Amino acid sequence: MKIDEKKTELISKIKTIYPSIYEEILNNIRTPVLKSFRVIDGNKEEEIYKQLLKEGFDLIKINGIHKAYSILNEKNYPISKSKAYINKEIYIQELSSMLAVEILEPKPFENILDLCAAPGSKTSQIANLTNNLANIFAVESNPNRIKRLKNVIEEYKVGANLIKTDGRPFLKYYPKFSDFFDRVLVDAPCTNEGSLYLNNTNLFKYWSKNEPKRISKLQKGLLNSGFKALKKNGILVYSTCTMSVEENELVIDWLLKKHKDAHLLNIDLQYVSNLEYVDGVCEYNQKNLNSNIHKTKRIIPNRYFSAFFIAKFTKI
């Protein structure tokens, strides 16, 4: 399929999912979102902020996400050339990506599973939010991605146990972790539609309208494994950086049917600045989904946040 045809398919999908706001979304995804980062050490946040201003960075603090900033302007050089980045005092990460861990609300001394851990952004964020006092297990199977994960763990001094295995049969190899974790993050591999921009044709090279149905099988396997590893009354967050219903609400609907002890929780995003979102869809292709799926959230792409999907579970 030609690039222009792929763009037409994506636009058609967006119209179907967001019939009342699709024009706004199409306008917003013509250019990438602003770069963003989070400060590693909260005690040095003000000092780092002032230093970055001196270096010529125009910043805006994002309320509702711990120590997070968007970069309005890089006057002299990229943020990756800043003193704070070189000294590993900040971590460059998209705001939408940070949301998943904020909603997970990890606490010190808890057992926490990051089931799709590479490249390590969220593993590092979990460690930061818990002052490196949580018992974190980071699971990854891809050799190339494991290398990146290891680097992040070492460079940012993240206290985490790295497990090299496929997240789907995770409990087959580690049965002791069944019903074990206080919190589980399943930031699943996806079609990355949140990174597609209409003005960048190169990004459409590997996108296919048929890919969501294929990759949803992987996502279901990972979510099923993560839920089995969750202890009673624990918290699980499932997230993707894509818009496809097949990879989001249909995966959630599948888990709710498979596990009667799975219960969706409300997600409160009202205090996050510059964020736009809507509830998850409960009807798709003339099929009614579980009515509680309205508790899931779809992040609307804008200048600050890329397209994202988040669901929050507990086990009852």
Describe the structure.
The protein is an alpha/beta fold and 316 residues long. It has two domains: 3-33 and 95-315, Vaccinia Virus protein VP39 (Rossmann fold, 3-Layer(aba) Sandwich), CATH 3.40.50.150; 34-93, 2-Layer Sandwich (Alpha-Beta Plaits), CATH 3.30.70. The protein has helices spanning 3-17, 22-28, 45-54, 83-86, 95-104, 121-129, 143-155, 170-173, 211-229, 249-258; strands at 36-39, 57-61, 68-74, 90-92, 111-114, 135-140, 160-164, 181-187, 230-240, 262-264, 277-279, 283-284, 287-288, 297-299, 308-315. Helix 1 crosses helix 2 (22-28). 41% of the residues are buried.
Features:
4-stranded antiparallel β-sheet, 10 helices, 15 strands, 2 domains, 23% strand, Alpha-Beta Plaits, globular, Rossmann fold, alpha/beta, 316 residues
Quick structural summary:
With 316 residues, the protein is α/β, with parallel strands linked by helices. It contains ten helices and 15 strands. It is globular.
Please specify the SSE layout and strand pairing:
Layout: H1 3-17, H2 22-28, E1 36-39, H3 45-54, E2 57-61, E3 68-74, H4 83-86, E4 90-92, H5 95-104, E5 111-114, H6 121-129, E6 135-140, H7 143-155, E7 160-164, H8 170-173, E8 181-187, H9 211-229, E9 230-240, H10 249-258, E10 262-264, E11 277-279, E12 283-284, E13 287-288, E14 297-299, E15 308-315
Parallel strand pairs: 5-6, 5-8, 6-7, 8-9
Antiparallel strand pairs: 1-3, 1-4, 2-3, 9-15, 10-15, 11-14, 12-13, 14-15
The biggest beta sheet reads: 9 strands, mixed
- Helix tally? 10
Query: What letter string, H or E per element, gives the SSE order?
Result: HHEHEEHEHEHEHEHEHEHEEEEEE
Looking at the overall shape, the CATH architecture of the largest domain is 3-Layer(aba) Sandwich
Helical proportion, percent range: 25-40%
**Can you tell me the number of structural domains?**
2
Number of strands: 15
Backbone structural class: alpha/beta
Mean pLDDT: 96
Calculate the terminal CA-CA distance, rounded to whole Å.
46 Å
Oligomeric state as shown:
single chain
What name goes with the CATH superfamily of the largest domain? Vaccinia Virus protein VP39
Say what the CATH topology of the largest domain is.
Answer: Rossmann fold
Low-confidence stretches: none
Shape: globular
Fraction of residues in β-strands: 15-25%
Please compute the radius of gyration using only Cα atoms. Answer: 19 Å
Instruction: Output the CATH class name of the largest domain.
Output: Alpha Beta
